[in-house]
């Protein structure tokens, strides 16, 4: 069940993401103040659903941003589809979903989904068709002409997912997409994401701090620990698919939840934090450097 | 899920009740206004104010209709001239402000250099420069008043629009970066729409400043058929009814400019929170 941590599996034609020896440090005035990532090796195959889990501040978001070429690693390499991450980004290989939906108020729901398609030069009829198709997929086909502020938080996040999928990116990067939602909505959204993943066959890297969410969704759970941010465990989730309400009641499900919790504990976090993370209430604070100015 | 999401289009009776709600919303303000005017009239007619230069509203209305188009102080013509200066200055100041805001938002050096200056300058009583401007551009030239107005309007526009262009959610920029969007696309798709509410706020502040700037600029001299000169000259001639009539026309011009901008704002940014709250 457990793989040896910190080893990149050999590259196969099916490898979508290959991370080798990645470090990321943040410096201020030339002095390293934070080692966010240290010695990260990870390979992700086509069609996998990989979750990154770990205590707040262990570098989950940073790792996701390194994969998506939103921050450059301090050392090591990231390849996506056999290309450097920067090239993959220029080739529009990434769909991003953040904790906040980041919808633009001045665009209707439909036009929000069309934004990446406009930027990528899809013609008008194709944009319309794709937006409709994607919004149908997330079951918001009746809300094309609404504005984001007219939708609930869960609906807005579904629009963000539709937008991320609209241009058929090779890989979907999701950073605690349901962290701001209540538990009931979160479980519904989990089911929805699995349905979309199965329908599209896309590769997903999913950051969460909820153990049940990670186990329920993933084919593999990558356990991280803080200071410095490292991968301490990789746990295969061999629950049958399709997964549904019954999955959360299987003995195997509970075994895996326990396994992840223990891996987190071994990774050096206190029992109390592990307990909090299990019920998914451990708040995580994301700090993103505000980039003032244009360009 | 929000109930608002699935609400059908307004039917006749809903439109009707919306009008009722609107009337209820505006009624108190209208009543206070009418009440104040009536009280003013009553006080002036019935109490001896011992030489206080306060004409009754009816006298002001009389002066307004008598000297609107004729006489020593043609208020209508004066108002048109002052409004021309105010709007011309507003246009010049806004244009210059938007250009400079674009530069300060684009270039960090420009921002570090200019923004503290602009913020400082908006706290300075720039109107104090009016006599200088009159001197530079010629006291009889409407351009001298326009330049006073332009300088007044310029600073709030720079400060607000710069803030609008730069206060974009970091996640929005990351999203655009993940699409490999060009700087140009980020400007037009994210920064400019984000700055529009800030722009309209500045424009509304500016419209008020514009009339103040034009009229006060005229106090320091100018062609005689402008509101500022009418106010100064009629007051020194003790024709306070004319003075008040000119002030009322100036006030109405200010309110109308403000409302016109607010109406445009409602059309251009109906999606913004400020446009969704307030009036029912
Ligand atoms: N832009 C940044 N500048 C400085 N430090 C940062 C920056 N982004 C993240 N960090 C630091 O890196 C560490 C990992 O952050 P993050 O990846 O956001 O953690 P997680 O998502 O697991 O909560 C934290 O200590 C955080 O403060
Ligand atoms: Mg995070």
Tell me about this structure.
The complex is a heterodimer of chains A (295) and B (280). In chain A, a hairpin with a 2-residue loop joins strand 2 (15-28) and strand 3. Chain A has helices at residues 60-67, 85-90, 109-119, 124-137, 153-165, 183-200, 211-217, 251-266, 271-278; strands spanning 2-3, 15-28, 31-45, 49-53, 75-80, 83-84, 94-97, 171-175, 203-208, 220-225, 230-236. Chain A is an alpha/beta fold. Chain A is globular. The longest helix of chain A is centred in the middle third of the chain and has 18 residues, at 183-200. By secondary structure, chain B is mainly alpha-helical. Chain B is 76% helix and 0% strand. Chain B has helices spanning 12-46, 57-66, 75-106, 108-122, 130-137, 142-166, 170-178, 183-219, 227-236, 240-268, 273-276. Classes of the chains: A alpha/beta (295), B mainly alpha (280). The interface between A and B is large, with 39 and 39 residues. The site of adenosine-5'-diphosphate has 16 residues of chain A, from strand 3 and helix 1.
Short description:
With about 300 residues, chain A is of the alpha/beta class.
Number of strands of chain B: 0
**Helix- and strand-based class of chain B?**
mainly alpha
Indicate the radius of gyration of chain A in whole angstroms: 19 Å
The profile of the biggest β sheet of chain A is: 7 strands, mixed
List the helices and strands and how they pair.
The complex is a heterodimer of chains A (295) and B (280).
Chain A: E1 2-3, E2 15-28, E3 31-45, E4 49-53, H1 60-67, E5 75-80, E6 83-84, H2 85-90, E7 94-97, H3 109-119, H4 124-137, H5 153-165, E8 171-175, H6 183-200, E9 203-208, H7 211-217, E10 220-225, E11 230-236, H8 251-266, H9 271-278
Parallel strand pairs in A: 4-9, 4-10, 7-8, 8-9
Antiparallel strand pairs in A: 1-11, 2-3, 2-5, 5-6, 10-11
Chain B: H1 12-46, H2 57-66, H3 75-106, H4 108-122, H5 130-137, H6 142-166, H7 170-178, H8 183-219, H9 227-236, H10 240-268, H11 273-276
Helix pairs in contact in B: 2-10, 3-4, 3-6, 3-8, 3-10, 4-6, 5-6, 6-8, 8-9, 8-10, 9-10
The structure holds adenosine-5'-diphosphate (ADP) and magnesium ion.
């Amino acid at each position: 069940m457990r793989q040896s941590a910190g080893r990149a599996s050999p590259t196969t034609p099916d490898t979508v993401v290959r991370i080798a020896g990645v470090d990321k440090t943040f410096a201020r005035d030339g002095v390293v103040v934070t080692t966010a990532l240290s010695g990260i090796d990870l390979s992700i195959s086509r069609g996998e659903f990989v979750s990154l889990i770990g205590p707040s501040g262990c570098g989950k978001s940073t790792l996701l941003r390194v994969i998506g070429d939103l921050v450059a690693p301090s050392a090591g390499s990231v390849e996506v589809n056999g290309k450097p991450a920067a090239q993959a980004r220029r080739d529009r290989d990434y769909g991003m979903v953040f904790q906040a939906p980041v919808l633009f108020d001045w665009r209707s729901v439909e036009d929000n989904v069309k934004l990446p398609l406009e930027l990528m030069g899809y013609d008008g009829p194709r944009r319309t068709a794709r937006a409709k198709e994607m919004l149908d997929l997330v079951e918001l086909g009746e809300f094309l002409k609404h504005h984001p502020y007219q939708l609930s938080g869960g609906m807005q996040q579904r629009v963000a997912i539709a937008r991320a999928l609209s241009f058929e990116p090779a890989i979907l990067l999701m950073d605690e997409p349901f962290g701001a939602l209540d538990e009931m909505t979160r479980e519904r959204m989990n089911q929805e994401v699995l349905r979309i993943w199965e329908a599209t066959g896309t590769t997903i890297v999913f950051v969460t701090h909820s153990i049940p969410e990670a186990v329920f969704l993933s084919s593999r759970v990558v356990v991280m620990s803080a200071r410095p941010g490292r991968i301490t465990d990789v746990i295969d989730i061999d629950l049958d698919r399709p997964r549904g309400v019954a999955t959360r009641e299987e003995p195997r499900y509970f075994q895996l939840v326990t396994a992840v919790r223990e891996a987190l504990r071994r990774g050096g976090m206190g029992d109390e934090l592990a307990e909090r993370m299990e019920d998914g209430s451990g708040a995580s604070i994301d700090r993103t450097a505000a980039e003032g100015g244009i360009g | 899920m929000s109930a608002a999401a699935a609400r059908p289009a307004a039917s006749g009776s809903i439109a009707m009740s919306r009008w009722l709600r609107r009337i209820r919303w505006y009624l108190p303000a209208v009543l206070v206004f009418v009440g104040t005017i009536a009280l003013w009239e009553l006080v002036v007619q019935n109490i001896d104010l011992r030489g206080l230069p306060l004409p009754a509203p009816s006298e002001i209305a009389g002066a307004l209709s008598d000297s609107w188009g004729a006489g020593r102080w043609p208020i209508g013509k004066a108002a048109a001239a002052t409004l021309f200066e105010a709007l011309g200055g507003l246009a010049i100041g806004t244009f210059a402000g938007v250009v400079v805001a674009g530069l300060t938002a684009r270039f960090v050096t420009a921002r570090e250099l200019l923004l503290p200056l602009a913020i400082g300058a908006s706290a300075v009583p720039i109107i104090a420069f009016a006599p200088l401007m009159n001197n530079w551009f010629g006291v009889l030239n409407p351009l001298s008043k326009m330049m006073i107005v332009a300088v007044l309007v310029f600073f709030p526009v720079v400060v607000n629009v710069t803030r609008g262009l730069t206060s974009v959610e970091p996640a929005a920029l990351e999203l655009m970066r993940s699409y490999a969007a060009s700087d140009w696309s980020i400007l037009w798709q994210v920064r400019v729409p984000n700055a529009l509410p800030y722009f309209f706020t500045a424009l509304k502040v500016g419209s008020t400043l514009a009339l103040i700037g034009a009229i006060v600029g005229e106090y320091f001299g100018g062609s005689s058929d402008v509101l500022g000169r009418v106010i100064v000259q009629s007051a020194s001639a003790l024709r306070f009814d004319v003075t008040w009539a000119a002030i009322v026309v100036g006030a109405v011009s200010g309110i109308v400019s403000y409302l016109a901008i607010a109406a445009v704002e409602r059309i251009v940014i109906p999606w913004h929170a400020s446009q969704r709250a307030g009036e029912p």
